[in-house]
Design brief:
Elements: H1 11-22, E1 29-33, E2 36-40, H2 45-61, E3 65-69, E4 72-75, E5 81-83, E6 87-91, E7 101-102, E8 107-113, H3 120-135, E9 139-144, E10 149-156, E11 161-168, E12 172-175, E13 181-184
Amino acid sequence: MSKGRDRVLTQDVFEELSRHAQRIEEAPWLEFVHGKLGVKAPPDGNRGRIIAWLTRLCMQADPDRWLYANQGLRIETDREGNARPDGSFALSGTFAGQGEWAGPDGVLMVVEVTSYDEDTDRRDRVEKPRAYAETGIPVYLLIDRDSCEVKVHSQPDGARYEQVVTVPYGKTVTLPDPVGIELDTEPLKNWTR
């Protein structure tokens, strides 16, 4: 490319790229966080099992709220990023009619389960907490299979989460309001290698 004509990946271009990628069998899931294109590892069996377990717990706590698996969200301060959390906790029907990339309004909590790839540290532990806090999502739950810990981020201030509670697997942790669920993390020991 000639000088001055460098192309910048915009959200519209990203969403078009993602739409085309989804048509390819076994294509990776793409994300666009803080202006960086990323690839999200598809769920492995244990990661899928963790989301199924959380879904059941969420439904038992309140059948009018649902943990939506892999719903794409427009995130960050100006909604110019795209993430595909492992789970988005919201009222039943929140994402109806919104398509692949939904607005974050009504999302009470996002959940990420670390994958065993080289980008997980940067993506799940650094970039996504900042992006979700900028978006104003009240709770970010990180299930960290590398450290065998659960991190509950809450009280977003528009730039970061002011409170982070970390517990090892086996302890009970409170997912604060507006989620309001006590989470016994003992079963997570079964789904981490």
